[in-house]
Inverse folding.
């Protein structure tokens, strides 16, 4: 039986996506059941085989790329470890040898990622560049398909190898553990991008299924489903339509950027809730990826709260190493000699931040809009870094603090526009479309153009009401979290019938008002494509 | 820590298992009760929103003023224009059709139309008949269809969308247009068909499948019960219509004593020009094409049925006003 036929047969019976009922009502319970009946030390293998099943039904033969990468990462990790343990080598020799192996490992992983995701993009752009000199070249598109989650597990492989190199962790001798770390089914599609050191504390322990973990995990899954089915998937068709709207007006552009920002947040954070909840059922703690991003005080803070694990990856594996690298240190010294101490202090972080944001843009995919998005945040964060001190002294002079209401309001408005303009370009099909959308905000802003077309964006009256009510509920939850209100403890203190009533109300809200089934096209997960 | 690997006592474990079972049981009861409440009493409907919205729109018609019902999917609302038919002949009709409408829903809309109207003829367009799936089922994995059968709330969960606040649709342009054109959808798009002239020889050999046959028979029985004529028709379609489909439907029509008007056999009579008369390269006719197909079907009705000419009757003034407002005919 070919793998394609096998997948077709499987797909008659199940649909591999986190937000389908089959995931949390059939697949997850089946894994829980098998997991619970297996010996503690072998339980992680149940998770590994469940992950492979999940992967194969999603990516078919491309699963072999994941297998190859995990074997490679495992072997490279062991090679680095072997050098580390080689007592015959001097420290410098050891470091140099380890660095060579690490470089080989990282470059090969990035090369695979590059070929699978970026080859057409660079080919087309190089050809376009050369054609400026009238060479009349053309690029034959290859349309290579990458396995799901490759951008995530490649970064995890890099972090694993670097941590082994830095001797933060010992290389794992068992292949199955490295394979599970890189392919654990809940985090396979959209992350979070976790560290081996963190995952290994619980991922391989075979913690028995407990009532507390089971209920807590499923409650988190329910929250994720609420965000995805009640908000993100209702907005999905409207986002598709408004981003291709022909008679573009400023009000439609702003509306497009706002609803996409909401959709993206609810889709991504909702999926992460399902991911973290699924892992929690097995007693496995995965890193959080969101922390109320819309309550951030500025663009830098926003990225400490949005896609946190991508940010911390870049911080630990690009920002810090670049900041302290020899080249950057030399450059900083030169800057100090020419421009003085104040400017030189900004030099190293600016170079590092530039590379971080370039990597961030490129990581999102082979599109200029993503690279622009990265550079856009680089510019904002650079401006914030430069102006932070003068701004604080100005506040001081005005007898205000960062917590003064006008300052908070000013920052909230500023962040609102920074975020939505960023998302406007991020989602746009091309740079020219992004600029077109941006331009009409200032040249053709008419609210009537929006209000008269609200019924034409693929959402009806009920969809708008559902989205608004659900969004407000999630925002209230975020406010409670931000203010550290122990809402969960208070909720658990309620009498059982009240608690159960609330759970049933949430579940039935999703059943009735969720965007699924006939009348809705299934919306994919936005961050699955990165 | 939220995770708790500690060992529980047997009593505690039993207690938790009972709690879990009770929680699931109550949820099943809620799903069962809500399923009973939302399942349409009038039978098997696939897209409850399409059906309900169409019914809402149709109920705006003055009772007992519609003579002909056009049933089917998008082929219907692109091919037959009730406003033109009224303008040309004074016959009143309505396109009870929606995009990708399934046969079970077409039947339900036809049935519903008899609640306020007394049509004389039902014209069923064939495209919806040649679907290869059970019209009532989704193209889902098997367990999803199974769970929808057990708990219909999952299929009909958008039932609430039938209740639209009046202020929403009163001034809505699409609703107003839908009503004014009696379900016909007018567009200026025209993309020529450039394939072979004998397009009906293309495609696979198909027969009416068991699912469609069931609903087709229900159409037949319903029309017999109401004592109205059921006419089968096939709109010009260079992309999907084949000799095999024609033969299969002709056989059914002959066996059941029904008229079958295949417009694909009358392209020359109608003067269909594939370079201008299709809106999407042969799948649907364009507005210009619809003028020809509507003319053909109204002539057929004039020759074969004794329908009243309502022009000049003040009860039907709304039709005249709508035509004046939209300026489609002449």
């Amino acid at each position: 039986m070919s793998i394609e036929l096998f997948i077709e047969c499987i797909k008659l019976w199940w649909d591999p996506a986190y937000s389908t009922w089959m995931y949390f009502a059939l697949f997850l319970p089946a894994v829980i059941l098998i997991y619970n009946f297996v010996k503690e030390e072998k339980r992680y293998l149940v998770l590994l085989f469940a992950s492979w099943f999940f992967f194969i039904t999603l990516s078919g033969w491309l699963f072999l790329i994941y297998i190859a990468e995990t074997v490679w990462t495992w072997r490279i990790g062991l090679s680095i470890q072997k050098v580390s343990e080689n007592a015959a080598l001097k420290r410098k020799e050891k470091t140099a040898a380890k660095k060579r192996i690490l470089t080989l490992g990282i470059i090969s992983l990035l090369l695979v990622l590059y070929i699978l995701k970026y080859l057409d993009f660079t080919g087309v752009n190089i050809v376009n560049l050369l054609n400026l000199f009238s060479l009349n070249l053309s690029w034959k598109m290859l349309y290579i398909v990458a396995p799901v989650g490759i951008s995530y597990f490649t970064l995890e492989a890099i972090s694993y190898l670097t941590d082994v190199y830095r001797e933060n962790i010992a290389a794992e001798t068992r292949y199955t553990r490295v394979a599970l770390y890189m392919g654990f089914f809940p985090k396979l599609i959209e992350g979070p991008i976790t560290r081996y050191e963190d995952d290994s504390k619980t991922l391989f322990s075979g913690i028995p299924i407990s009532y507390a973990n089971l209920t807590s995990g499923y409650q988190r899954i329910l929250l994720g489903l609420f965000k995805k089915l009640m908000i993100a998937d209702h907005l999905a068709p409207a986002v598709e339509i408004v981003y291709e709207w022909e008679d573009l007006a400023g009000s439609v552009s702003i509306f497009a950027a706002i609803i996409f920002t909401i959709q993206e947040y609810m889709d991504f954070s909702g999926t992460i809730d399902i991911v973290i909840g699924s892992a929690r059922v097995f007693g496995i703690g995965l890193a959080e990826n969101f922390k109320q991003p819309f309550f951030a005080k500025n663009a830098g803070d926003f990225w400490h709260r949005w896609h946190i694990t991508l940010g911390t990856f870049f911080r630990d594996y690009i920002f810090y190493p670049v900041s302290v690298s020899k080249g950057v240190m030399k450059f900083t010294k030169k800057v100090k000699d020419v421009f003085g101490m104040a400017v030189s202090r900004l030099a190293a972080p600016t170079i590092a931040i530039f590379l971080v944001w370039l990597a961030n843009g490129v990581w999102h995919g082979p599109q200029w809009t993503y690279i622009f998005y990265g550079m856009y945040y680089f510019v904002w964060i650079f401006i914030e870094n430069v102006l932070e001190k003068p701004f604080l002294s100005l506040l001081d002079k005005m007898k205000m603090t960062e917590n003064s209401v006008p300052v908070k309001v000013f920052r909230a408005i500023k962040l609102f526009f920074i975020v939505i303009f960023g998302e406007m370009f991020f989602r746009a099909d091309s740079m020219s479309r992004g600029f077109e959308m941006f331009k009409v905000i200032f040249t053709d802003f008419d609210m009537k153009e929006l209000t008269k077309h609200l019924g034409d964006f693929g959402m009806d009256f009920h969809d708008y009401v559902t989205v608004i009510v659900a969004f407000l509920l999630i925002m209230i939850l975020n406010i409670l979290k931000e203010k550290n209100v122990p809402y969960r403890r208070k909720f658990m203190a309620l009498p059982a019938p009240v608690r159960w009533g609330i759970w049933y109300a949430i579940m039935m809200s999703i059943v009735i008002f969720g965007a699924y089934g006939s009348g809705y096209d299934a919306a994919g997960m936005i961050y699955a494509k990165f | 820590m939220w995770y708790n690997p500690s060992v529980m006592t047997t009593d505690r474990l039993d207690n938790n298992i009972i709690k879990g079972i009770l929680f699931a049981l109550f949820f099943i009861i809620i799903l069962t009760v809500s399923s009973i409440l939302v399942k349409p009493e009038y039978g098997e409907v696939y897209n409850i929103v399409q059906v309900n919205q169409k019914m809402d729109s149709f109920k705006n018609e003055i009772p007992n003023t519609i003579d002909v019902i056009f049933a089917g999917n998008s082929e219907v609302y692109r091919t037959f224009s009730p406003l033109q038919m009224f303008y040309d002949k004074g016959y009143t009709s309505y396109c009870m059709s929606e995009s990708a409408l399934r046969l079970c829903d077409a039947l339900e809309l036809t049935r519903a139309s008899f609640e306020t109207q007394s049509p004389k003829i039902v014209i069923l367009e064939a495209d919806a008949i040649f679907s290869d799936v059970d019209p009532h089922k989704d193209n889902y994995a098997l367990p999803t269809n199974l769970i929808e059968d057990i708990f219909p709330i999952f299929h009909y969960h958008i039932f609430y969308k039938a209740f639209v606040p009046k202020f929403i649709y009163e001034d809505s342009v699409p609703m107003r247009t839908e009503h004014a054109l009696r379900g016909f959808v007018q567009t200026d798009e025209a993309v020529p068909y450039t394939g072979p002239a004998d397009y009906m020889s293309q495609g696979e050999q198909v027969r009416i499948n068991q699912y469609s046959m069931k609903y087709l028979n229900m159409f037949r029985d319903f029309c017999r019960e109401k004592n109205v004529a059921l006419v089968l028709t096939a709109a010009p379609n260079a992309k999907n219509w084949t000799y095999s489909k024609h033969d299969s439907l002709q056989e059914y029509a002959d066996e059941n004593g029904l008229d079958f008007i295949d417009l694909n056999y009358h392209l020359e009579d109608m003067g269909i020009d594939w370079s201008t008369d299709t809106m999407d390269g042969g799948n649907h006719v364009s507005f210009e094409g619809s003028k020809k197909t509507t003319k053909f079907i109204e002539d057929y009705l004039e020759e074969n049925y004794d329908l009243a000419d309502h022009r000049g009757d003040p009860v039907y003034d709304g039709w005249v006003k709508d035509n004046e407002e939209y300026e489609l005919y002449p």
